[in-house]
Amino acid sequence: MIAGIIEDDHDAGRELLAAIGNAPQPAWEERAGEMQALAERWRAHGAMLEQAVFPALGTGALGAGEGSVGEFRDLHRTVAGLAEDLARRAPSGETDGHWLTDFERLKAAFDTQCERESGALVRQIRERLTPDAIGEMTRRARALRQPRAA
Hints:
Layout: H1 2-21, H2 28-57, H3 69-89, H4 98-128, H5 131-145
Helix pairs in contact: 1-2, 1-4, 2-3, 2-5, 3-4
């Protein structure tokens, strides 16, 4: 089901963030590689949301107190943007302390996104969509993850 794909992305992101956070000092090359992997994973996660999940849910409010598709998009863009920025900056071995501060901001935004998706978004998918619609959403999400033939 689509919820499993969403949770797999969250788990993979958490593992990458843990590897980045636990890297010995200075370890900028290692951090750069892991952050690039997170940025790529989160681009794929965003593509899945945009092409498989959000179209099925529509553009309005999801439910009382659960926000809107637009709010989920904004949160995802924040996380993806921070990951891409940190991936770009890591190889420079930034020593002014801003990289690590921004990394902490990324972790907080990531945790918020995962919490909201695992709760409100998955709940709305289960409550608002038919089993057939969920199956189609899941097939579309899996197809987006398949490598394309050249």
